[in-house]
Amino acid sequence: MVVVAASSSLLTIAADRVVVIPLGNSDLRARVAALEAVLAGVSRDGNDITFSGVNVHIVDGSGDTSGPVNGLGNLIVGYNELRNIGGMINDRSGSHNLVVGSTHNFSSYGGLLAGHFNNSTAPFASVTGGYGNTASGSYASVSGGQSNEAKPCTQASAVGPTMTPPAARQASAEGCGTRRAEIMRA
To answer: Does 10 share its domain with 66?
Structure first.
């Protein structure tokens, strides 16, 4: 095969045919230039991809973080394998969640899941480790362990030094008043 480049086209001569490919395609050049501009802050070094000088947004397309969930806009680190134990529910319908680990369920938005077999079922609810934990109240958080649940509250029960007199300084371990932890006086 012989390849000859001219100023306006590329001429390829194969054994039985001649192919002329135009080089002056301004549409194609404009599209390539636009893609190069978009990817200017992206580089690759072996198995690593680096984003430099940019913010990375992952969104579900609804236009609102707390909009209707559609199962999109999540950042999943790992495979988050399905729960394959007979009859177990796999609910990954939530949006805008950070999911790290395996077999997690997330059905709301703005949550964080790490560990194994954990659940986030309310807005901005997080489980940051452990196994079989559930954050089912809005803004609820489970830090780890096994089979723990942070449930929804119907009352505000956490009080602190700026909100109440020193004699009433208490905080709720679950945020609903079922377990109390004394705050030590300074």
So the answer is: no
- pLDDT tens readout for residues 23-63: 668 888 899 999 999 999 999 999 999 999 999 999 999 99
- Closest alpha carbon to 57 in 75, 42, 41: 75
Which residue range(s) make up the domain with 140?
61-152
Assigned token pair, 126: 């997080």
Is 52 part of any domain?
Answer: no
Give the span between the Cα atoms of 179 and 85, in whole angstroms.
33
Contact 88, 102 (CB under 8 A): no
Q: How many residues does the chain have?
A: 186
* Amino acid sitting at position 49: I
- 81 with 141, same domain: the answer is yes
Cα 140 to Cα 186: distance, rounded to the nearest angstrom: 27
